Amino acid sequence: xxxxxxxxxxxxxxxxxxxxxxxxxxxxxxxxxxxxxxxxxxxxxxxxxxxxxxxxxxxxxxxxxxxxxxxxxxxxxxxxxxxxxxxxxxxxxxxxxxxxxxxxxxxxxxxxxxxxxxxxxxxxx
Length: 125
Hints:
By secondary structure, the chain is an all-beta fold.
């Protein structure tokens, strides 16, 4: 599975951005697609995940109600719509994929099988 994230940039607090992740290389129906982020000087952290086949999402508490993960089956794309952005959302954002189901547990970064390169999101105050 190859992943390519894009859409990062500079935005003011309260603004919105949409990240995109182009996915290729495998039939995706069995996969969970996720977004992670790594703020400067911190560990990589889970943001959101979606089951490709059902579209059921799950979010970290820090972004719930502000971010929306979605996928487009026809285009093999995964999106992260980020609204009401805060300065603490500043990070490199990564898309990732796994066939494992960690529902009910924390989606550890180590549990992901495939990673794309990050895209930087900077939120100014």
